[in-house]
Amino acid sequence: MLDKKLWLELQDYIWIHKNLVLEVRESTFYKESPILQEKSEVLELEEFIKNNRKPTLQQMLFDYIDRKGVKDSAIYKKAGMDRKHFSKIRSNADYRPKKATVVSLAFALELDEEETEDLLGVAGYSLSGSDTYDLVIRFFLEKKIHDLDRVNEALDEMKLKTLGGIQ
Fold it and tell me: Is the whole model's pTM more than 0.85, yes or no?
């Protein structure tokens, strides 16, 4: 059970952040563009992709593990993963695990909020400012509390899916 002070702080945090999200309505105009037909356009696109490509989740994850100087097994165990699932991430650069898996790995690596957002971003995810689940995650990151048991306790008390049993 979370202590009362942390529980109240979490409830205030979620209330404040959910009420700060403003609905923005914009008119969006779409322009039709022809399919790239000229060779120069194709080369330009390839050059753009080459110059703007970010690291993969696999590259970023193992870079963080190396920088922390810990063994892979320590991280996947701390994240609540089995060796087989972790091996799938290691061996397949195109594999994209669920958001909860990436979040668990970020907590296991004790990443800060910015590093966690970066890791989530390369996997195609982000933490929303209007989703209660994401606000709970962000709250613990801001508090620098990396204990997955405490995070799961808070998620469970808020009747949200916990990070346990991740894929």
Answer: no
